[in-house]
Amino acid sequence: MASAERQSGMDPAAATTEGGGKGLEPGADAAAGLTTGAAKNKLLELLDSDSTRVLVPAHFDGRSRSLWTIAGTALAVAALLLVNGGYVVGRTHEPRQTRGIGSIVEAVLLLSSMAVTWWVVARESRLETRELEMRVRAVSQEIRGWTGIYADLRTPQLPTVTTYTVLRDGVWRDVPTLLVVEGDTVALAYGEEAPCLVALRTNRAGADSADAAGVLERGQRLTPDAMRTWKPPGRAWDPRTAGHAALAGRVLFRAKDTPLRSHLEQIARHHQRTGRSVLQNQMRAVIRLFALRVMPALFVCALVANAVVYGVVSAAQEANYRMGVEVVVGKTVYVVFPFACTVLWPVLWIVARIFTNACEVVLFDTLQRSKTDYEDTDNIDEFDVEALPPTKDVTVGIGAIFDRMRWLWWNCDFRTLSRSSNLSETLGNVTVICSVDKEGTIAEPFCSPEQIVVPDGTDYAILDVGEQNQAEPGTGAGAVIVDEGWERFLPSLRPLGLACCLNTAAHGQGGAGWGAPTHRRHGRMRRHAKIQAAQDTCLCAIGRAVGFATDDVARYTKVKEVSVAAPFHAATDALAANGEHCLAASLTATVLQPANGGGSPGVLQMLTDGCVDLVLGVCPDYFDGAGIRPLDDRTAAMYYSLYLNALQQDLQCLAFAYRPLSVDPGAAVRAGWAGWAKSDGVEESRARFVDMRLSSAALNAMLDEYGSSSNSSGASAVSTTAPVDAGSVQKHASDQEIGSDQTPGPEHAEVLAGRPAGRSSSSEDAASHSSSLDDLPTHVTEAGRRAQMQARTRDAPPRSADDAGVDYTQALVHCLGDDEDEVLRDAMSEQIFVGLATFAYAPKTDVCDFIEDLDVAGIRFVHFSRGGGRQSKAFAERLGLETDWNTCILLSSDTDGARSSGGGGGGYIEDHDIKARLPRGIESIRPHLADVDDIPLQISLFAECTAASTREMVRIFQENGDVVCCIGSALADSNTLTFAAADLAVGVEPIPHFNRAGAGAGVVELAATANDGSISTSGALVTQYALGAALTCLPCPLFLQHDTSLYMLMQVVSEARRLIGCVQQAAILLAGACVAIGVVNLVSALCLLPPAMPGYMVLWALWVVAPLLGAALLFAPHDENTMSTMPLKNHAHVADLPRFAVYAAVRLAPPVAVTVLVYVTALSRLAAGGASSGLGRLSSVVGRADWAVLAPSDQWALVGAQTYALVAFVFHSVCVSATLMFRTRTTLDFVPLRNAVWVVASAVCLLLTFAFAALLLVFGDAHVAGIPWYTYVLAFAGPLVLLPLQDLCKLHDKRRWTRLQKLAKLEFKTKLGLHSPL
User: Fold this and answer.
1) CA distance 417 to 427
2) CB 194 within 8 A of CB 162
């Protein structure tokens, strides 16, 4: 169990001591900290107040211009129908004309549909507006039900996890920023930002500072400059005066505000409605086209034709002059009546959107719960760069989709915000995926060892560390040195490997965790200071790679763990100069006693690792594998230069040191030093915090006093005293080496020194190192180190080149009555340097392949980095992004100061970055796009980013037509506004299992209904991390668990593209049917005939048949080319309109012609009493007849002909829908019968239409027996002409579409000027 828990990164004792907090010191004032219940009440009071309401404007509401256009058309047509129907009914008596009653009924139906549409739209708008507010209420319910479980996730301190050490319930807890409340006691370390307005606690009773100098604003960092203004500064720096020695090194503050308050206010102020999706803008363009061009054209043509008919023909016959209203108004209104029927289409649109959203959400849930891997299909060549991305074979039941659809219809979707985010539409048109984080989001939360640097005589050797094939990538569990012949450096590697092994989580537990995946170090340094992740990561993988085993670890017992933080040290100033502005120099020293040493003096060993600036400053000598040599300036400059190069390459670097100690544990016990006796088994008693102070001014004073006596000649004398015995490392035979099953990797260019791996530096390298002496900080120089030593031992003679070295085994403690801290400082100030190790954040599994496949899908991946340009490029190279010239833009302004690491100043570096005409600063991006080129829209890397500049760059992408999906850490509260600005946001767990906490001997884990996208069932969020993530991810529709592959986004995007394409084809079907019916009635009017399709038949075709066929198109199967298609940008909608107009004319001509011909042939036989007649005679007989006195037989003849026309139109509509499965694939490429839903829908439409026609014909008085055979041929043989014409249009469109796709891909992949040095 313990091993499994360490593998998951979780401490089983999280809820008690080590987990959420550190034990309260005896005598501490427990009342100074809030209880969890009080903190919950403060949060609930804020969340439940009306001032935190977050309402987002809906995309489609009653104020929509498109809706008003549709409603206005329906209202005008309904009014004309009432006029026509009232006139016909009021003017005639016998025989009664049913047309008038039909017009009135049709007008009532239109008005009723308007009311239904307004109700549905208003309700949908209300649900969309309240989605975010309901999510806030859901989080409030989760907090109300929270039982106060605090988890400790055994991971290093990460920039993507913003938590604070807060006193809750008398225990120090790790609390996310948004759970900190007013009145909390917060312990800040050097470099940490204040979560809100905080005031310094100045005494044990918890009183706050009344001095403004003791106040930090939100976001202000705790720095030595700020501390120096406090009165008195020493008292504020040492929290032991307030009774909390367990947090020595941190400063206690009282929160004067609740961060969640400003967080919600910013969301309410900045979270605007996301832009309309591509599909919505396309629909708006089509509605505008119909309203401004198509419908007015048809209306004017019909009105003119009917007016001419009435003025020239009907009015000339005095008996028919009363037909004016019906001819001019009635016949004209039925031409535009199909456009009025679109009043119900907003409801159909909403239903389709809910269906597609339900499909996406169910698929997302299924993929996240599935534990199978993503695999390529059998026919995919893994070396093909254009190959489709791998998928996960999961089954999504239609029942689950309809269940979710029903829930979405009736409820406000606070879980996935599917309405306000346009979930399916946005996913289907994503063009840019932005990563605003690195650690834990697209990279592993643990940094992995990259290289080891060990002394080799007067030189050094660099050894690459890789991973075994069977090890999980990114865990470091299978670390192995990959260089050939690395065993010859074993003498130098032994002390470094031993230090790595004994500073592990496995040590202290009997080696129970040895061999487990990467885990956090079993140390207390993180309690006292903010440290780099490498210092908080277990390094036992390096020890195993060197050759140490469990038995070697068990030979040592920990006596004392010393944590050193030095914010007032010159090493911290050096860190700031190198770009590490938020870290204090720190190191960890572990005093160990070998098992065979007993209790006699001279057997203790001190192993140290920490910041290079600080460790090098306390090492007068180094061990080269054969003996101890003085660490002169040339040698120190060599290693310091490697360290600076590591910073440039986005690597973290640790230095290792060693010294033997001669301390009598018994004397230490008698002196009152806790933890030195074997009986002191309490871990807290073995931990010690030491503050090292050495300001630059003090160092200069020491140099002035002692510099003249220092000798920096660089002695070459070697001591034969070895730091560790040779038996500490396993001996490796040539046929049984560590990692012998792993083939050594090929030699490659070094990251640190730029030469083949495993080789020592040459004389040319030595010359380059000599030139780097100017970069060596003063406290690291030999003069600086000797001055510090002489200042501590004023009576001791200075060392010279003639010294044979220092005897590190001599008695250290001359008087055990001295202060233990001072003795430990002296012990750590004279150590032996043994080497360096570099660490890097490896991309998560599948991330690099995911980015590569995004390029195939036409989606650009963009990484926003907080680091400088050089470091950002180094990590981008690991991701597989382009890092050539002009591929990185800095978003910080020149006035922002130095931001980049490893060079002092920020900005572009000549001869390395080739700045060309790249803009600098976010404020320069828009002018650059307007006046220079579009390089900022083409690159994939932005450096020196802040949350504000990232958010502004997202808006720039959107202004230029990109649909942006943003992925980031769910525990970085600074990401929230960026999430809100993006079209779609995806929160990612930066650390594994943060919704799992220790509870007794077992583990409380998230229920089976685990977080499927955001907020799940009540009580699902069980830890403070899960609650903090829910508050951070308020604007996020989707939520990825830590171990979920990003390929899931690809599969969800693929499904969304399919669904959006199907919705587009369904919309084409409905729009085409509307236009076709209007043209059919217009042609009938031009032929002096009554409408071929009266109102109730139009309603049947547009409200029953077309929606059923359109819904069936949503179930079209996947197109294999979906994820190799370039997505459309959100601008220039419905371009190339003339070409599409021609396609529409050609594709609609057969149904229109067949419907009119069937109507004319049937009417000519029925109206003429069974005798066939031509169109001229038919127009004369029917068109000039007085419609007010039509006999029942003539009325039924007209109904019979119209029924035949309806059957022909529906049949051809079914045939047209068969060609709309895909835009460019012909019916030969894809047989429509493969869509089973379409087959059923088509059969239902035809059967219902035939039944409807049979009822009209059977109960009517029409003599259908005399209908000629060619009428049936025209009605059912039309597909012989229709289908070839449809495929010809699709082939022509395919050629044009393929050309446009090639141009789009060329534009996407060809970045003119991107790689140019000019």
Assistant:
1) 13
2) no
